[in-house]
Amino acid sequence: MALKLPRTIRLDPSDTFVFPSAAELGEWAVTGTFLFFGADAATLSNKEQQVFRAGFLGIDSFGWSTLVVVAQATAAERAAAVDRLAEQLVARCGAPDMKTAHAAAEEEIAFAQSLCDHPLNTLIGLRRTMEGDGIRETFRTLHRRVTRLEPAGAFHLVEVQEEDTPEEEVDIFTLAAGQK
Fold first, then answer.
1. Residue 166 pLDDT > 50, yes or no?
2. Which Pfam families does this chain map to (predicted)?
């Protein structure tokens, strides 16, 4: 069985507007829900509420992404993602030591990996809600409909030019192959 992990993806520049900080394109990602434990959703700013409702956490930048894509990973890439997340947990979240952080990072990566039980290039979205004393996560997958008249593929891309909008290109096949 192939090893798969979620990578951040940006189909448009909206993450750079709606989140306090957007994840870099192609980062390994986890849900990041642990950052909201004990938080009062009513006191979050508008952008923080958007992160709470729908953000995946990019491991390297600690920025947010609305969607992730199921991508193939090697065992070495998975191990590096665990190590990097552990470093971030110590540096940004106050984990007491690397041993504790590594155990937490391993758990987060394992959960993220469990979300990728789908074909490569499947997009995954997240919805978080506060329910009682806890946080509930629901996930949805996004697939393109295939008809007999149109060949199968991951996406049908349509180029749209808008003035004063930075142009951004996404090469989903390179991402899926594990290259940035």
1. no
2. DUF6505 (PF20115)
